[in-house]
């Protein structure tokens, strides 16, 4: 910013004063550690109170509870964890956890001392507070809100072995009278929706007194519903709060795994309460070798006729014969050991001879495996715990296994009349190879258990699943650019969108997917209408396809679109058109965002506002016409606004954010640039202006790339230590411009497409006069890292580059393993981000043409490379290959590896370190600052620890 002289002319003042405006300092990384900002928000049921957490990036936080439409505000210290407030349903009380302070957390890491949360309960009328120590969990008593249940952490002296009792004290605290009632050895507890019933389990030492209990919160009467030497868990009330189900675990000497039963409770009436207990292994019709799954929560059907749950493999203990063999082997081992000492070889027993052979430690990879062995290994626990959906019909005591090893995916439809089964077993292998997924879809009648094939080889890559209506009798689906409906009762199908003069193929999806679908927003609450988007407009279509209404008025002509629906109503089932509905609105040309309003019973969405701001988190108070939403832009951090009208008029700011921002130099705003790619496509780029921007002056610029980024033009960049190193707010504050262009891809040319889009974008940005063409750098992470690595092989427009976790050899990368999932990259290449198909053996030129390593001799741009040794997305060898190639060619390159880190940097010290190093590098390359020694000279391995200690000390001093 230039120094500005201001002449202050005051009436009655005879002296003219001149002052010089103070230039604000740029952000430093130590400022990021102290940066104060808001986290989350909560709204009371009556809309009268709003809460949020606030505080520094590192350090202790506060919880703010404020009158939504008033200035009255309370502040509470909550420690280092951003715990949010929970309001009672009557909006009279708030409760929140208070964690340990930041200093205590750091000290505890060194001493391994356990830390415990406190609970603060606040009476909002007078701000009177009650505190409870060593709290594990808490819950208000549903709609009644008279009570709060508080469960305490176990004593440090409590047994910690696997089979030890987990029960602890639960305090029932009456909020008005402050009277309390203690329940001992509680394992789990749960209030029903009304809050007049509390179900809880007892898990005591030696399982003495274990059982399931129900407390009437009005009378205090407790009913024992079940008692046994067992563990009870997973209490799950139905929505109405008049029935619940849970699991019961008994020890069984025949099995290694716990053996579970389902308990269903309904018709609640004290000692006359109805109870169903289903123990699968005692049922002759139950699937052999299976047991009820401990990881699947059971639930009642809406009509309380059926219990639904999961089952999985149940492992038996070894039989006596196996035990005898083991004992004989042990005896043989003793003989062998004795003989070894005496240097005499005894004659081995037959069992010893057989079992003494060391087993090989190996894996067999077969070309017919539907999933790679690495995928099976990575997903082993998921497979072991996989839950096969099953049911038990109470009246006729009928068990039905709905899902199985072939049809693993089964979704029970609303109203529990039908279930939908997906069987991809015939197509799984090919889908894992080329990414083009197909599935057979079955309809299962839950009354008879019969199933019939609805669709064979449904294309599933673009979301080929049924969207079932709330009545459970009809569904929508998508095939080849058209949405249809199907009636489960008569198998009647209807074309929903074929006669609408609009495309329902996503025009921006440039992956190798056959006619990718636009958004399907599901069904109206009465199941009469499907709500389906084309690329811009939202349509209300009758289930038979005969009635079509555009809820938006030719928004395509304005390049405006519905970008999502705000879900405002508790426990909603579909979109209730008899209530006001709200939608996110987005303009693809200007990037303006806003909120659209569909009044109850109407058929036209009105845009309430759309401007150069980002809007999110629209919330409605459960019991009042009070709304809050977040508003921000690239100059203003997110602020909560509130309104008491349906059209959101007269909205007022509830809070403020980032109080320290005014102290620092900040971005001067943004500019949207239109440009034409080398392929002839009209695209856009977001150019963010540096702090203290002066028109006519050119600035060093970081070009940050991924895919399409301009939709986030109005997003606020919060100062932080990101997992990829780059934080736009920091660079803008420090005098850099930041350019984020859109990239449109051509199949079989992902790298060349990036060149075709990014280079013209940079030139268009230079033409504005804002970007210094001699000092432009490029950076990206993951897919952006790949494109960065490739761009510097094709252009010298960049003075420096930083690539995080990049793909560098598309040929070798194609068949490497994505270790985070265990699958290969082949499907990702052919049907997802890679955009290269088929395999390189039939597409060698495209694979080589788009691989950085095949053009490595042309690199003239210095490169900072980040690749971690435990990267489970882009194999570490990709970074090594590029680094060693550049090093062999004597190109300026430095690679940084954080040991044990995955695809992004998770540990805070590492995130800090890389963020600082990246800026040191760019400051040297683009601003002419002194080169950091780690770049100019490197660091000897023996000196590395001293180097890191020095940097850590300097940071601590700052």
TrEMBL record:
Gene3D superfamilies: alpha/beta hydrolase. The keyword Transferase does not apply. It comes from the Bacteria. Pfam families: Peptidase_S9. InterPro entries: AB_hydrolase_fold (IPR029058), Peptidase_S9_cat (IPR001375). Keywords: Hydrolase, Signal. Residues 1-21 form the signal peptide. Residues 759-927 form the Peptidase S9 prolyl oligopeptidase catalytic domain. This is Prolyl oligopeptidase family serine peptidase.
